[in-house]
Amino acid sequence: MFTGSYSYSSISRMILRPASLANLLVALLRESLKGVSYRGAASPDRLHVGGRKVLILGSGFGGTYVLRHLVPELNLNENIETTMVSDENFFLFSPLLHEVATGRIESRHIAYPIRRLHWRDRFNFIQASVENIDLSGHKVMTTMGPLNFDYLVLALGSVTDIPRSDPAVTNIFTLKTLHDSVLIRNHIIGVFEQASIERKPEQQRQLLTFTVCGAGYTGVQLVTELRDFIYRTLLRFYRRIDPDNIRIILVEAEPKIAADLHMKLGAYVMKQLQHMGIEVRLKSRVTRVREGHVEINGGEIMPTSTLIWVAGLAANPRIAELDTEKDSIGRVLVNKYLELPGFPGVYALGDCAHFEDPMSGQPIPPRAHTAVRQARVVARNILAEIRGKDKKP
User: Fold this and answer.
1) Tens of pLDDT along 63-120?
2) Domain end residue (candidates: 276, 311, 346)
């Protein structure tokens, strides 16, 4: 990476070295030969006569990367209208939400406006919420009206599977959207404001008890960042707060944290959490949530002012209600082309799709990098259908 520490003369010497020029010439020769061989073997595209509509639901990793791989490859004479629908008009780099929630980075650092994408003049964007999806009728109902489609991409993501609680409870938070992370950060600062003027030790301990439910990757990242935010930043500005009254708890139903990790690596993470002073409660569940406290394992009452729920996911409600085969959490089953069986031209990916690994027979876990790779497959197969070519897994 260029860091600005090189002078222009040194850069020129590196570029103009005989070895560098020779490597450049060889690379150009290879590319030219590759282009000749490709042109000789290529067959003319069978373009579809008449307009086609591609509708992408969701602006997360899946939807945005489908757009990225699809739109630049379309020819103008193919007459394809591409539309993205999302209730957020930006792409969110969700793996860093915990950094925003704990004040490590600003919200603008992980949000990129959809309308600023390079090919913004070649697709339509509608900020709206999806209300209903009619697969058979090729129609999607949104808050901005109905939209028809010839090809549909389901990339609405997932939601946090939180337990039902009293509507009056205000101390439970999730971490799925940018708004969630800002709420958490403001709540933590607000709690410290209250605790700094609280004279009763019991009440201050209740305010300064932070509970994170779910010790997966997100939960572990969040709880460690929360600990650093409190001890490295907030305590410097709230001198009246006794650090001994601060309590950070990580609750996990499984017998180990981050179940996907190797046993040795999981043990190392566990040791680091304990070294940081974080209480880890394994084989434990939050069974009830009330204002000012939570119930663990059906009996233990833990006073707390903050419960952040990052345990468990469920498919987006619009996906879970589709009349097609789904798994236990509402994700639609797809074939090797990421297409819904029985609904040609309808694709699902990311958190919306149940796609089994052919090697293990298990569904691929919902990760950002998985959605990015699946997006390339979906875009390629839509292009193949438009051009009358064979789809590829």
Assistant:
1) 999 999 999 999 878 889 999 999 999 999 999 999 999 999 999 999 999 999 988 8
2) 311
Domain boundary among 311, 331, 353: 311
Are 280 and 338 found together in one domain?
Answer: no
d(CA 316, CA 159): 6
Q: What is the value of pTM for the model shown?
A: 0.83
- Calculate ∠ Cα 356-361-363, nearest 5°: 35
For residue 342, give its domain range: 52-159+314-386
Angle between helices 263-275 and 217-228 in degrees, nearest 10: 20
Distance CA 376, CA 41 (A): 23
Domain assignment of residue 26, yes or no: no
- One domain, residues 187 and 114: no
Residue 380 backbone dihedrals phi, psi, to 5 degrees: -65, -40
Residue 298 and residue 183 share a domain: yes
Query: Structurally, how many domains does the chain consist of?
Result: 2
Residue with tokens 């850069």: 11
Q: Domain for residue 280, yes or no?
A: yes
Alpha carbon 324 to its chain's center: 24
